[in-house]
Design a protein that fits this description.
The protein has 274 residues and is an alpha+beta fold. It has one domain: Aminohydrolase, N-terminal nucleophile (Ntn) domain (Glutamine Phosphoribosylpyrophosphate, subunit 1, domain 1, 4-Layer Sandwich). It is built from 4 helices and 16 strands. The strands form 3 sheets. The protein has an 8-stranded antiparallel β-sheet with strand order 3-2-4-1-12-9-13-16, with helices on one face. It has a 6-stranded antiparallel β-sheet with strand order 5-6-7-8-14-15, covered by helices on one side. Strands 10-11 form a two-stranded antiparallel sheet. α3 crosses α4. GO terms for molecular function: transferase activity.
């Protein structure tokens, strides 16, 4: 199973702490060695780092680990190849333009017999089922909203339909963001935590690193972190119920019709690694 990491905040925030633990899963504490990538939204731009090497050994990952890039939305991925060779073009997250803004997408799962018809506006460069699904998803959004939309409820409703359709071909855990909000779909395994005042002292599960967020935040900061499995071993993470699509904005899930945030909590002090 690939590893997903997302962050959505109400103020620009760096992801150095979470990424330090996440990076270790790419060949050190887990067996995912087929490449990794991370994307940061900065205003209308997106800063993307990709490397087909294991993240635990990657000099690019070492740079990101110590580079405090501040962003409202971040998506990262560690790959365990199921479809497509280990090559740069098959490395997540993927990036495309729609409605004059960038979209970033990363997928965890394996889609079988998935061969949709594309209009040609969005075409995969690599050979993964993930990039094909992303192109199809954007194709459908472009057809559904030819003039574009920034209505989070409209986007959520259409993405929910697409997640069900594409997910009928296999596991379809994914993270998707246009820089305004971040969508997280759980097909089998995905969890999140919202950090806000009073902030915790957090300890990574994959690396012996602790941070007191009270020392590096303000009382008004709010940060949602989404991951395949919990990144810390002393906080309570919320498991997203399989089959649900959550929308995050300003560092917390948005209450939308047909979106269930009722979830199963991981007990404090317990980490369930794949």
């Amino acid at each position: 199973m690939c590893q997903l990491l997302g962050m959505n905040c109400n103020v620009p925030t760096d992801i150095c702490f979470s990424f330090a633990g996440f990076r270790a899963r790419g060949g050190l504490t887990d067996h995912h060695r087929d490449g990794w990538g991370i994307a940061f939204f900065e205003g209308a731009g997106a800063r993307v780092f990709l490397d087909p090497s294991p993240s635990a050994d990657s000099p690019v990952a070492e740079l990101v680990k110590h580079y405090p890039i501040r962003s409202l939305n971040v998506i990262a991925h560690i790959r365990k190849a199921t479809q497509g060779e280990v090559r740069l073009e098959n490395t997540h997250p993927f990036q495309r333009e729609l409605w004059g803004r960038y979209w970033i997408f990363a997928h965890n799962g394996n889609l079988k017999n998935f061969a949709p018809t594309l209009t040609g506006r969005f075409l995969p460069v690599g050979t993964t089922d993930s990039e094909l699904a992303f192109c199809y998803l954007l194709d459908r959004l472009a057809q559904r909203f030819p003039q574009g939309t920034r209505d989070i409820a409209e986007l959520h409703a259409e993405l929910r339909v697409l997640a069900i359709e594409i997910g009928s071909h296999g596991e379809f855990n994914f993270l998707l963001s246009d820089g305004d909000q971040l969508f997280a779909h759980c097909s089998s395994r995905l969890c999140y935590i919202v950090r806000k005042a009073p902030f915790p002292v957090a300890h990574l599960a994959d690396e012996d690193l602790t941070v007191d967020f009270n020392e590096v935040t303000t009382p008004l900061d709010r940060v949602a972190v989404i991951a395949t499995t919990p990144l810390t071993d002393n906080e309570r993470w919320t498991q997203i119920v399989p089959g649900n699509l959550l929308a995050f904005r300003d560092g917390e899930p948005v209450a939308l019709r047909d979106t269930s945030t009722v979830a199963q909590d991981y007990p404090r002090g317990t980490v369930t690694n794949a």
